[in-house]
């Protein structure tokens, strides 16, 4: 993650797709309001001329000048006024802080007597100063309100610190700029839809803190063909051959046999892991969502992905959940790119509880597209007969499957499937029994 400062400019002018700059729509006073002021001024002028009160002409003339000057000033109040957010880092983990600098600048010779800026910020990632955000018409947002008085070519900066809370993708904006003339007669307003986005990653914990073994949580993988030897795993000894390194001599075996012996190391291979996240928190997705249980499942998936990446495993992510503004399941193939873990964290930060497809059907559908040697680590808040049947079918077809269950009841034993049980108080009760013998018999018939 880079801490390089990033800018997002919100201007009173916006650029269209053709590259031309369009002037912002400026709200002007209604014709009826202007007409009332003009009618009053004309009436006073007529009264002054009819009755010969020349001193009475000063007031209507002053009113007309004020109206013209105020209207002209109002039409130019938001021109060349820019509003920027400088965000130190757009990604954070829960508990971290993000520094933001807001900057407003008047890039013209005409002063701005008053400028009110209402910037919409999320309540789930508020400033450390709780008084900074005012009420908003949205339930999950508040308004950061600032009032400025800008001289010609003046720039004003203000600093804020945001506290990262729960995971998610949070938008800063839209922003409303409001200004007017120095007499307070007219107002102009502009709403800008442009947003900045801040990403709060899921909470990542050490595997022992989750109740998982810190050594080989995905099981031990041995290569069928010797790709390279792991010097930390000695499986035996053999007679010394010309060309063998003296560092590999097995001295205890040499002493026993009175002949040089060379260590034989166990062949290993880099493991490919695919985290399969089930976002359903009830056996039937239409029953609702348990937010705490979903967050725990996402945290477990992120922790497993972090462990795999730290141990130089090729790691990927698939899920039957979807990200906002999408109804398609998540699919990221295993990789060891430097930014692979970052991309996985971003997907997990954005995933919602919307179930695009049942997990059992999703696993059977996505399996043919995954690398054959990959270990499928299924992280699920709930267990169903159909899901266990799908995992058993994958195992019978030659897949390595690891089950990480967050359900309250311990999962049944699946032959050949490593199982981890991480029960939580927020898991729903198992209301329907899982009958494994029938499941196994059915899939044995299918495989045959």
Shape: elongated
Global mean pLDDT: 82
Q: N-to-C terminal Cα separation, in Å?
A: 50 Å
Q: Number of helical segments?
A: 9
Count of strand segments? 22
* Residue runs with pLDDT of under 50 for 5 or more positions: 1-28, 222-228, 431-448
Q: Which structural class do the helices and strands define?
A: alpha+beta
Indicate the percent of residues in helices: 25-40%
Just name the CATH architecture of the largest domain.
3-Layer(aba) Sandwich
Would you tell me which CATH topology of the largest domain applies? Rossmann fold
Text of the CATH class of the largest domain: Alpha Beta
Radius of gyration: 34 Å
Provide the number of structural domains: 4
Mind explaining what this structure looks like?
It is a single chain. With 448 residues, the chain is α+β, with helices and mostly antiparallel strands. It folds into four domains: 144 residues, Immunoglobulin-like (Sandwich), CATH 2.60.40; 46 residues; 41 residues, no CATH class; 176 residues, Rossmann fold (3-Layer(aba) Sandwich). It is 25% helix and 31% strand. The chain has a six-stranded mixed beta sheet, sandwiched between helices. Helix 5 runs antiparallel to helix 6 and helix 7 runs parallel beside helix 8. The protein is elongated, with a radius of gyration of 34 Å. The two termini are 50 Å apart.
